[in-house]
Amino acid sequence: MEIKKNQEYEVEIEDFGSDGSGIGKIGTFPLFIKDTVIGDKVSVKVIKVKKNYGYGRMMKLLVPSPDRVPALCSVARQCGGCTLQHLNYEKQLEYKYQKVKNCLMRIGGLKDIEEKMKMTLGMEEPFYYRNKAQYPVGKNKEGQIVTGFYAGRTHSIVENDHCCIQAKENDVILPVIKAYMKKNHIEPYDEKNHRGLVRHILTRVGFTTGEIMVCLVLNGSKKDLPNPNELIDALTKIKGMTSIVVNQNREKTNKILGKKIETLWGQDYIEDYIGNVKYQIGPLSFYQVNPTQTKVLYGKALDFAGLTGNEIVWDLYCGIGTISLFLAQKAKQVYGVEIVPEAIEDARKNAAINGIENVEFFVGKAEEVLPEKYKESRETMSADVIVVDPPRKGCEESLLDTIVKMSPEKVVYVSCDPATLARDLKYLCGNGYDVKKIQPVDMFGMSGHVETVVLLSQQKPDDTIEIDLDLDELDATSAELKATYQEIKDYVLKEFGLKVSNLYISQIKRKCGIEVGENYNLPKSENSKVPQCPKEKEDAIRAALKYFAMI
After folding, report:
1. Would you call 289 helix, strand, or coil by DSSP?
2. What is the CB neighbour count within 10 angstroms for residue 466?
3. Is residue 519's pLDDT more than 70?
4. Cβ(224)–Cβ(246) under 8 Å?
5. Distance separating alpha carbons of residues 62 and 77, to the nearest angstrom
6. Segments of 420-477 assigned E as strands
7. What's the Cα-to-Cα distance from 160 to each of 68, 121, 185, 312, 446, rounded to whole Å?
8. Is the dihedral of CA 179, 217, 451, 58 positive or negative?
9. For site-directed labelling of 57, which of 46, 402, 486, 519 has its Cα 20 to 30 A away?
10. Which segments within 219-317 are labelled E, that is strand?
């Protein structure tokens, strides 16, 4: 059956993709369809066709799933922020559990997941939980100043002054700034011609302290703001207003913030707490956007670390010291590593504010600092617990290798991406560690994102058992254990949404010691270069080989 672009079909949603999009099939051809839920029957228009899968847009909901709920936000479909607002919250938590579980099984090759993994820890209130907002400023078709959020994968602003996941204080702040801009004829920034003054409005709210920061991101400086006292007078009438600042960003870039901060009124920071630890937060500070669930997340990391007061702990990718200071309350000594110098300045300041002295911070890449420190003092450097909280790309293998060499009793891995988490756990489990506990935490309700905390412990000799095998019964080259190239392609596409070639499959087979035809992986001409399989596709192919018991 030929699937045609712009043609409409009726499909039933059978599964979710990694971003929360529903997956339905036209015959055996899978379509990824945003804004759909498992159990929905929909009329869908095909908007993109690949060789083995495609993308569709829901045109009409024919029969709703029992798990579908009305979206609280009127522009949820258009906006790129919330992708799961139409799904019952309990089902969102189940989806995130399954997302983590599937990655750990398929990419990480972990066994007995159900015994080690708990259901996703959800929020009591899954709305109005974000303490930081970044609103682009522009004009609508009528020429009126608007704020909102970008539609998915675009820079078109979806007008919205009331976001259902942002702090409610923004409902008051945005109209004040827009009224000031209109009265003083201040133009919003136009990224096409690099003209206009106000690019973004950034807000931060201390959920514990009630302190509020407003930061205007300008294509200029504070001197370019006409009648700034008008804005200050209006904003300071808002309860909790603590900091009004300007961020200069004159670059032709998609990056929201520049490096220079100027204070218009008050402090250049606000303060807030996670648990009983106080933090100073500036416009450029990395600080978890969901403070309520951050306490849950870090509390779980602290619980997994099992500190008694005698341990040496390394906290890698420590940011402004949020986890480090949590750990320091129960550890003998904590060392934090972070690449951003400004974050380390904040971390040291936060330690001083809280009177915590058993912490030391280093500036640099974790994958460089830790190996260097270990190389310098291999005989004396030790760690009882190592905590890693890396960015989405996960840990470099050189860092994982150093962790294994340092041989801490426990590794606590905090992850924002289940796929790279699974890849890194596979490495650690292949080098003397065993996964003991897995806890997903919902930090970003109404979206497909999920955080996960994992506890790994050194595998002791008595953790293994000896068994006798008849090797004649385990012929790994027998026909029933082999999969065809097409079967591997189909598996990778279904499970990871990736398209891989025979060339890439053969390259990974060779890496895994599997024989392939002698003509595979050869260049077509003498001078041509052979493209090498990207890491993401290599991990997916390895997962497929594992699934088909070929490795």
Report:
1. coil
2. 4
3. no
4. no
5. 17
6. 433-441, 451-458
7. 23, 29, 21, 48, 17
8. positive
9. 486
10. 241-248, 260-266, 270-274, 277-281, 312-316
Helical H segments across 329-406, by residue range: 341-353, 366-376, 397-406
Bridge partners of residue 61, in order along the sequence? 42
Q: Give ∠ CA 347-368-286 in degrees, rounded to 5.
A: 30
- Strands (E) in 67-221, as ranges, are 132-139, 145-150, 157-159, 198-205, 212-218
**What's the rounded Cα separation, in Å, for the pair 321 and 334?**
10
At 372-390, the pLDDT tens digits run: 888 887 656 789 999 999 9
Is the backbone of residue 433 left (phi > 0), alpha (psi -120 to 50) or beta? Answer: beta
Which structure tokens are listed for 119?
Answer: 């259901």
Q: Are 456 and 504 in contact (CB under 8 A)?
A: no
- Token code pair at residue 140: 């609508």
pTM above 0.70, yes or no: yes
3-state DSSP call for residue 57? Answer: strand
With b for 16 or more beta-carbon neighbours within 10 A and e for fewer, the 66-96 pattern comes to ebbeebebebbbbbebbbbbbbbbebbbebb
Contact status, residue 386 vs residue 402, Cβ threshold 8 Å: no
- Cα 350–Cα 354–Cα 357 angle in degrees, nearest 5: 90
- Count of CB atoms within 10 A of residue 183's CB? 12
Q: Is 416 a catalytic residue?
A: yes
What does residue 285 show for φ and ψ, rounded to 5 degrees? Answer: -70, 140
Q: Name the pLDDT band for 514 (thresholds 50, 70, 90).
A: confident
For the cut 70, the answer to whether the pLDDT of residue 117 exceeds it is yes
Locate tokens 């560690």: which residue?
433
pLDDT tens-digit readout, 290-319: 999 999 999 999 999 999 999 999 999 999
Distances (CA, A) of 206 to 135, 235, 271: 18, 16, 6
**Within the chain, how many helices (H) and strands (E) appear?**
13, 21
343, 285 in Cβ contact below 8 A? Answer: yes
